Amino acid sequence: MSNVDELEIDKFSQLAHKWWDKDSEFKPLHEINPLRLDFIDRHASIAGKKVLDVGCGGGILAESMALQGAQVTGIDLAKKSLKVAQLHSLESGVPIDYRCVPVEELAAEMPASFDVVTCMEMLEHVPDPQSVVRACAALAKPGGWVFFSTLNRNAKAYLLAVVGAEYVLNMLPRGTHEYARFIKPSELGRMTRHAGLELHTLSGMAYNPLTRIYSLNDDTAVNYLMATRLPAA
Ligand code: SAH
To answer: Which residues of the sequence carry a binding annotation for S-adenosyl-L-methionine (predicted)?
Structure first.
């Protein structure tokens, strides 16, 4: 019944105290954050909007969206991460409503409630990503935006996201990513269609290991972002 891998939640709980350390295992998320925030805001102009961040972790994206003027709710199932997120939002004076609830349960509790739903770097950690995509769509208001990002599944993604990041550059702890759970853009496209969402933009998010700089471009081979929209009523 439950769509959660407890080992995944444990992995993130153990690292929870490091969420806001920009030189920690979470460095890549801090580095890509301005890019994805800009991608989201360009499509959905989030100031004043009701935004839900699914799998929010320590709140890196959630806080940045709140700073941009959005009214943000963040959900995750790792309690320690949520605690860190809550403390950080108190310290920085950026109010965010953090809740420990499965996305499917929230969708049943308050369907069609958010102007924008974001679900970043989370689908590759759950047993049934289609169920998460469906719940995200159900939580969006008619005409609302739903954003996803995840890792593509091919030899290059395996080499860069697993071998490179976990074994060569030691950017991420070994075992952070399970290759079989990576999702091809065509597969995510199908999941979003099945959930009634319309694909708006697909963008690659590439890391250059030489310059150590991330950028948004057409190269969806490894990490990618998808902007989708629920048709207006
Ligand atoms: N979205 C954040 C964090 C990505 S890390 C960001 O991009 O900055 C992946 C997050 O997904 C972790 O916080 C982990 O606890 C969460 N997660 C994993 N499985 C989950 C599930 N079934 N339900 C909710 N959150 C989950």
So the answer is: 36, 55, 76, 120
